Amino acid sequence: MPHVVERATTGRATCRGCGAKIAAGDLRFGERLPNPFADDGGEMTHWFHVPCAALTRPEPFLEIVAGGGGPVPEQERLEREAQAGIAHRRLPRVRAASRAPSGRATCRACRQTIAKGAWRIALAYYEDGRFVPSGFIHVRCAAAYLETTEIVDRLRHFSPDLAAADVEDIKAEISSR
Asked: Residues 69, 110: one domain?
């Protein structure tokens, strides 16, 4: 079951990493897995934008890159991101940065409540071929929980609506720990 990098033939597929549609003609990554619902042992393909695959599924992404699966734009940067995801096992869980709309969520790292209006990072586990939301961490707890502070590019990728001032706030909070 080799994974694949190819151009999307239609615009119907949705990226499993970010949830956005993959436009027709865009380069996409397909992770091939055994289909648990097939009687004949068939396979299924989970589609990702290429950067989303590097950030959320580093092992399969590196398999295709190492196997010469075709040219990937920004390949060196994406390989570094995927390697970081393997080196820091919790890093692929990072999904987005946002301000807490209420004060009810609890940080998975320090077990303290995340105050209303505070920056938080959403997490998701990959389980049985799906990404399952798994709570939040304080931005200041990122270094301890994720074992790295190199997360800003991931947050920008999964939170494209972050303003430059927001990114600076997040960087300052990460480095304040």
From this structure: no
Domain-ending residue, one of 59, 87, 115: 87
Q: Which of 70, 87, 104 is the last residue of a domain?
A: 87
**pLDDT tens, per residue, the chain with 177 residues:** 588 999 999 999 999 999 999 999 999 999 998 888 888 878 999 999 999 999 999 999 999 888 776 678 889 999 999 999 999 999 999 999 999 999 999 999 999 999 999 999 999 999 878 899 999 999 999 999 999 999 999 999 999 999 999 999 999 999 876
**The whole model's pTM is what?**
0.90
Residue 143, domain CATH: 3.30.1740.10
Say if residue 11 is in the same domain as residue 69: yes
80 and 96 inside one domain: no
Give the largest CA-CA distance in the chain. Answer: 55
